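Figure-free illustration: sequence to structure, shown twice.
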Amino acid sequence: MDLSQFKKTFIEEASERLTSLDNTLIELEKDPGNSLHINEAFRSMHTIKGGAGMYGYEAIVEVTHAIESLYDKIRHNHGKVPQPLINLTFAAADHIRDLLEDENLVNEGLVLRHSELMIAIKTMFENAAAIIPGGLNQEDADGVAGNEKLGVTNTWNILFYPDEQIITRAINLRYVFHDLTELGDCHIGHEPYEVDGRQAWSILLVTNEPYEEIESVFLFVLDYCIIVKLADCDIFDPMHLQLRDQYLVDKDLPEMESVQEETCKIVSESLGKLDAGNTRGLVQSTSRINVEAGKLDHLMYLVSELVTTKSELILALEKKNVDKALSAAEKIDKLSKLFSENALDVRLVPLNEMLIRFKRLIYDLSKYLKKEVNFEIIGGDTELDKNIIDHIGEPVMHLIRNCIDHGVELPEQRRSNGKPEAGTIRFEAVKSGNYVYLSISDDGNGIDVDYVYNKAVEQGFVEPNIKLSEKEIFELIFLPGFSTAQSLSDISGRGVGMDIVRKKIQEMRGEISIISQKGIGTTFQVKLQQSVSIIETLLIEADGVTYALPIEDIDTCSLDFSDEQLSRKNKQLGYNGRLIPFISLRDKFSNDHQTGLISGKVIIINKSDKNYAIVVDKIIGEYQAVVKPIGMAFSNQPFLSGASLLGDGSIALLLDTDHLWEEIAS
């Protein structure tokens, strides 16, 4: 059996679980005693451990089982999660992401980081009695698995009470005990004794192997076993016992507070050697889509309706019943539209699935930069095509990082400016027609246009004494190689500038602009078109070319105006008691640049308080268009935002009403 597909699914599910864990830890830091979050952290590690063990990720099993044991103890004692454990879990989550990409620990650097992480985990276990409420129960095998994995010698007591079913199941105990002796020094009692009317044997095992290895030996007879840890030393070695007794009697145990401080220090030193602020994996795309059951149910309903209607059509054609055939054809036409809508709906993914990954980024960067940041999401339930979600993640992540690094001030600076100590980064999403509008803003410093202009002159991007508008100065920020950073840091000096952000957005035929006010804040506005969408349009024709206009942008159409009202000279017409500008598609796109009068039908556009008219040769009628991107070949035609294939095989070009307005206003 080929398990590669199942392993790929495990990796994707583990990545999603790690993202969920990141956000759980962020909430735990705010409320370390929240039992729901503690249980969720435990379940995340437990779930990942189960899958990792199934597909041979032994290093992941080692890490997750140790962390899981710590959370398990906390939740059973109804305690609070200490900060060192939260930091340790964050580091473990990042390390697991790397291990998912390097199953066999081929990378030497990853091997070193694994060792350093295990040192930090060992330190946590050694000081568990002081920093974890109730400490660790040394008789709880699951609770000390992390210590066992570090090679500590332990003595186990295995109570084995078989019955006659072992014989009927044809289990050969010889192999069971052979494997058991391979684990370490095994002492089996000479005589059985009675437990609840059944004969039982006591087996003492001295080993440095973990609980899982012992459990695996008795895998097929676990129903007849009780495995209990007896001691964390070799009870058959007098030297071991003497040293342990001396340690317990003479050890000068420090105060709990000092142990916590020392643990924090050691764990921080170990974790400091790991990659801090590692955002790899935060925007990784997956090949799977989680689909609501309701959408699939609706799809199955449409399939059943289509099969039934097809039978009706065939029967009507056989009987030459024209009326029933036409009725079935109309029904199939309606079903095809519903199929298209449902198929596209299945591809839609809520923005929250992308945004939830950024909480960890904001948490790490704010800690690193010693800033306080709140992250607000508006319109997170807006659904976008998965293809857009996969491609927009990295640019949005960079914009958020930019807001934290360059926008939000330090708490003391914000306090002196009369602002709350915690800055706010807000993400907003709005979908309109074939477009999605994203806004990433902060309430920080804002952009100093004079400083940006002077930097541009200093770096040779602008000639001295050339006057630039505020919008033009903001555009300088997107120039390749331009930077306003006074010094490079781990955050700003990553080799990814705003020019790369714009390039990635333009590759999706999107746009980005900046609005900023010094001392108030900055907003990055991103406009994207859906990769595929179905919208209601009005088909029109100009100079022999068919165009489509979104119905929702149209106020009214087919108005009659005289040629004098549509003269090129004035480029304005009267509508509802006022003058509005107009644009002629024939005049705009035709090679025949005539002057004088224009004739044709008039369509009034009303969108976002933008009121203007479009003059066309002919209005064809309404049409439900499946709009697809037209690619970079039309990148020099910003007025066109997509194309749709018509029933006769011809193409209708979707007009961008925003760009048409910009052409009129310029």
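We now fold a second protein in the same way, so the two outputs can be compared directly.
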Amino acid sequence: MRKIISLLIITVMVVSTLSLLSPDVSAAAKVLYVSPAGDDGAEGTADAPLRTVSAAKEKLKALKGVLGGNERAYVFLREGRYPLSDTLVFTSEDLPNVTFASYPGEEAVICGSREISGFSEETVNGVRAFTKTLDPATDPADFKSLFRGGEQLPVPRYPEEGYFTVGATAPEDDLWTEENTPWSMTLGQRSFYAHKEDLAFDFTNPEDVQVRILHYWHDELMLLTSVDRASGKLSLSRPSSMLIRDIDRYYFENVFEKMNEPGEWYLNRKTNKLYYVPYPGENADELVLYASSLERLVEIDGADGIEFDRIRFTETDWTVPTPGGWLSDWRSEADIDALQAALDVRGVVEVKNAENVAIVNCEFINLGADGVKILGGVKHSRVESCFFRNIAATGVFVGGTNCLSGAPECTADITVKNNDISGYGRKFFCAIGIQVTFCDGAVIDHNEISDGYYTAISDGWVWGYGYQLTNNIKITDNLIYNIGQGWLSDMGGIYTLGVQPGTVLSGNVIHNVAADPGQGGYGGWGIYPDEGSSQITVEKNLVFACGSDSYHLHYGKDNVVRNNIFALSAESQVRVVSRFEGHKTADFTKNIILTDGKTPVFSYIGNSAAFNAQDNVLWDLSFGKKVYLLTDGDSKNAVSLSTARRKGLIGENVAADPMFADPLNFDFTIAEGSPALEIGFEPWDYSKAGVEAGAEIGLGRHSDTAYNSHCALQTMRGSKERFPLWNAFINRIAAMLKAMKTFIRSLAF
């Protein structure tokens, strides 16, 4: 009987699911069909499909007021490409509660690109090239993105590998003054000087050359207005957002003279001539490329219940910040903040003033802006089981205004779950995998985020202890790795900012976060609660092999950090700074801290009244119980565990082997009998971090990434150089012991 009942339940579930997704649900106008071979004058039936998504959207308006309650309409897109010349806009005039989905078993592609063909062959820069003078009447207009067979093609850069270093800062008359900039680091410059030997040739159309400057936590991206090779002066299309220093790195993009590798392309905007370097075997008369000048594909503003299911969004353009553009004429600190984290970049799918929006099992590939941008007034919405690759800016952005909870303009109850995000920040390096600014409750769960140049997950947007809407953010079971990659500074696998009651970071695995290793670089941190981060619980996270610290807290109040594993990061495992405000910064208990080669377990410790480190297990793989701490960031101020305890810098902790299975190969399984278990440490299955096992991502993809994908300890190899005096002392003692051992052996012989 139980088997029969179970079978009946399963049958009902299957029938219910099919009734939602099957194209045979022919409740007449409630279900429409679209095909690239269709006709917008057709009825939209399975046998007479429409041709465009916009036509289906318009046809559904007739049902507004006819369908009752939450009754849903469906638009099924047959296999193929659906190029848009304008953004698809949903407003309160449109029918709510509509699902746009690929026809079962097929893949529908909504794109912003148009075809270019009819090339000729010639020789350019000494290599074979295909060229075409574009016809404004038939070919795409001015564009910065070009694609071939699903691949985004690169523009040539100079130098072709690596980067240059700034020769000198701008002359005084090119600097902004203190009267019109809010803080010293934003004394921006309208020019800088290159080393003259780096300007080895004249640029074709210098005003089309982009210069990218890498410094602090931001990459400047601007156009040149002039180049003076005699002096080395480079004039810029807008002021820099922060000081350009003579230690900063930079390089040029879109340089015609360096176009010589297969796949590279260049558009001469003065002559409207397109150049492309072919791959072996390609023929000019058969080549088809796709160009895009459209950034945003979909905008939802005031339409509730819109869903996209199993749709691929791809091939959109991007914008270089220029005067009069969307990143210009800053005059306030809020405007400067917009430059950080690529905050002002548009969304390819952008949502505002809507409820119950769902974007599920979709793909976002080769995009020139944020993948999904959820803005003010959005509630009870989700981005789930989606696949992101080669995104110019942020994968998923969530945030509206810093309003009072419950206000109509608030963003609230957003879920970002089970998404695979890799290759974000490809045009705007300072972009983020998943960013939450102002949101009243969100779940960021089981996402896999990798291969970015800046922070993977960012939460909060108010510096210090001022009010912010952001609270009750659950950042759980995410897998984060290989971010930063040495390009920028001041980043974290997970970054938080400001007071956030109810926010929890739990079950996350973070490794290989690497900041700029140069003279001006700093801060490749695993978990990074920044200025004023308060009332945040951090528990059951595994963080290891980061270039700086596993955990770095830059002042805050009443944080709880417990039952985590912080291991094998290069500068120290735990750093807590600015604890001089007369209140408790954090309770740090029942954590396991593993280091090697005398890298500090704690740094910048002040006193146990401000930062209570109690009942933690500390161990050094090379030196065992001989762990040490820093009272600041200077290795000369190293103290032993017993000294730190005696001076009241920390509480009572245990120096003992936690008995990990194989930590150097990233197996942090704890053996029975571990002293960590005796202090109440609770093991958890960290291998479950990331996309849920067996889940379908995007259009039929499955992720099976192991939790330690692409792990490396190369960040540790240079860590001993961070503390030269200490290590010189250690090496000296080791040499003396070795000599003594040799001498004793000789006596015994």
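Summary for the second example: Residues 2-110 form one domain.
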